[in-house]
Amino acid sequence: MYRDPEAASPGAPSRDVLLVSAIITVSLSVTVVLCGLCHWCQRKLGKRYKNSLETVGTPDSGRGRSEKKAIKLPAGGKAVNTAPVPGQTPHDESDHRTEPRSSVSDLVNSLTSEMLMLSPGSEEDEAHEGCSRENLGRIQFSVGYNFQESTLTVKIMKAQELPAKDFSGTSDPFVKIYLLPDKKHKLETKVKRKNLNPHWNETFLFEGFPYEKVVQRILYLQVLDYDRFSRNDPIGEVSIPLNKVDLTQMQTFWKDLKPCSDGSGSRGELLLSLCYNPSANSIIVNIIKARNLKAMDIGGTSDPYVKVWLMYKDKRVEKKKTVTMKRNLNPIFNESFAFDIPTEKLRETTIIITVMDKDKLSRNDVIGKIYLSWKSGPGEVKHWKDMIARPRQPVAQWHQLKA
User: Fold this and answer.
1) What is the predicted pLDDT for the residue at 290?
2) How far out from the chain centre does Cα 97 lie?
3) Whole-angstrom distance, CA of residue 295 vs CA of residue 103
4) Nearest-angstrom CA–CA distance, 105 and 310
5) C-alpha to C-alpha distances, 65 to 54, 68, 95, 120, nearest whole angstrom
6) Rg of the chain over all Cα atoms, to the nearest angstrom
7) Helix, strand, or coil here: 172?
8) How far is CA 223 from CA 142, 151, 156, 173, 283, in A?
9) What is the DSSP letter of 258?
10) Which domain holds residue 159?
């Protein structure tokens, strides 16, 4: 007997309805699985992406993660660097929180952003690590005293890991030896050309020096970078009181170099501009103003003026100077001077700027100097390079005055 399916048992679902229901059920199951997978991926990726953003966006967090701390030990000890062990990530309960839904395109965008952000983050961490400690290298030397001949012997042996001070990425180091507080009488080693790990092995004798005076002295070693055309750049220094050394026999030391200090304190700053005109073969030096100059007079002030010397190789070619500003530690000059300099002579040219204190009753005092050339200090070299890179444009920069 034929029975119509549609007429069978009222209220029972038809075949088509059952088929549609099954398809909908399978689709929903797949959607739930895919959404769950996307949410899991997003949670894992979102955490890494958030961390990378925090590392790159906040320098302090990068510094805290990668910076090495130096722990100073008693004399004779070594600096110990401690750093967090990489790969140790604390457990985060946020992984179990429900995340909002996101599309596959959002996931791809997150992956792309993470890849783009990770590289700058690592570079920034390295930069912070480099700034966290200033490595000036170290020096090896020995000291001893001959009681029969009343002679102090100092042997400068070698140095290691000196910083590059020259434009070529190296240095020409030598060592000055003083017995402080006497700085008038000094001895010097030979210059080691283009060498960041120089060996000197030079012996120096301080003869006729009674032992009771030797133990009142401080052995002071200053490592410098020799420069033929401008002022020698200080690299670092070491000082050791001789009353803390057993001088009965030669004692050998390894000492880390420290930044060279200027016992006279800050000398002030000078703002000046340079303008290079290659077609006219000239440089215009504009002395703009100074601030916080060192007081050289008894009344707690100074009478400053500025001298500008043009040097070619080691010879003085031309000199200019500003007017004198009476009793003024923050003078405004605004005076310009033009110097003829052929382009082919730029590399061997130095402009020496000296801030002076005028004195009627005695010699004029030097407040501070600035050496501008291809091979000066970092700030001076930057100013010189900016001048060359921007011809016919005045390039202004503040400079710290040096002794």
Assistant:
1) 96
2) 44
3) 69
4) 64
5) 11, 9, 22, 15
6) 35
7) coil
8) 16, 24, 11, 7, 33
9) B
10) 135-257
Which residues does residue 160 pair with via DSSP β-bridges, in sequence order? 138
Among 200, 211, 204, 157, smallest CA distance to 185 is for 204
- CATH, residue 167: 2.60.40.150
Per-residue pLDDT, 46: 44
Report the distance separating Cα 231 and Cα 401, nearest Å: 13
What is the Cβ-side half-sphere exposure of residue 229, based on CA atoms within 13 angstroms?
19
Same domain, 273 and 378: yes
Number of domains in the chain: 2
Average pLDDT of the residues in 322-345:
94
| pTM of the predicted structure, to 2 decimals | 0.41
Residues 6 or more apart whose Cβ sits within 8 Å of residue 237: 220, 221, 222, 223, 257, 258, 259, 260, 261
- Let me know if 233 is exposed, middle or buried by CB neighbors in 10 A (0-12, 13-18, 19+): buried
CA torsion through residues 169, 173, 179, 182, sign: negative
State the average pLDDT over residues 229-256.
88
